[in-house]
Amino acid sequence: MHEMSITRSMLEITAAQMEANGIHSLKKLKVRIGELTAVEPDVLRFCFDIAIKGTPFEGAALEIEEVPLGGKCRICATEFKITAFENRCPKCGSNEIERTSGHELDIISLEGD
């Protein structure tokens, strides 16, 4: 379960940012997860809830923004959601596709006091 190691890394980064900004308690952590990261949002939430018990983060909420796999045609510049790993542009049929989203694994923001 790599979600636990991801959770621990997120909390380490969060702790450093809280210290740097004079924040003493975490209320909410917002993250962005792309479809291709192989991170299961429900498992990440479970790991987060376990990891914050008995810590200064206890009681904080985890908000997850899921990002679908997106593409852009290199021929006609059409942007679209890639479904079922379809690698053709829905407008012109080209298979010259650039993946533009779905790889994200980012901390977006944190709220605290």
Architecture overview:
The chain is elongated. Helices cover 27% and strands 32% of the residues. Strand 1, helix 2 (41-52) and strand 2 form a beta-alpha-beta unit. The protein has a domain at 2-68 and 102-112: hypothetical protein PF0899 fold. The chain has a 3-stranded mixed β-sheet with strand order 2-1-6, covered by helices on one side. A 3-stranded antiparallel β-sheet has the order 4-3-5, with no helix packed on it. The model has no long low-confidence stretch (mean pLDDT 95). The chain is built from 2 helices and 6 strands, in the order αβαβββββ. The protein starts with a helix and ends with a strand. It is of the alpha+beta class.
Look at the structure and give the CATH class of the domain at 2-68 and 102-112.
Alpha Beta
* H and E string: HEHEEEEE
CATH architecture of the domain at 2-68 and 102-112: 2-Layer Sandwich
Q: If strands are numbered along the chain, what order do they take across the biggest sheet?
A: 2-1-6
Binned, the helix content reads 25-40%
Q: Strand count, sense and closure of the main sheet?
A: 3 strands, mixed
Number of helices: 2
The N- and C-terminal alpha carbons lie at a distance of 31 Å
> Which structural category fits the helices and strands?
alpha+beta
Compute the average pLDDT. 95
The general outline is elongated
CATH topology of the domain at 2-68 and 102-112: hypothetical protein PF0899 fold
Topology, number of strands: 6
Strand content: 25-35%
Residue stretches low in confidence (pLDDT < 50, at least 5 long) are: none
Round the Cα radius of gyration to an integer and report it. Answer: 18 Å
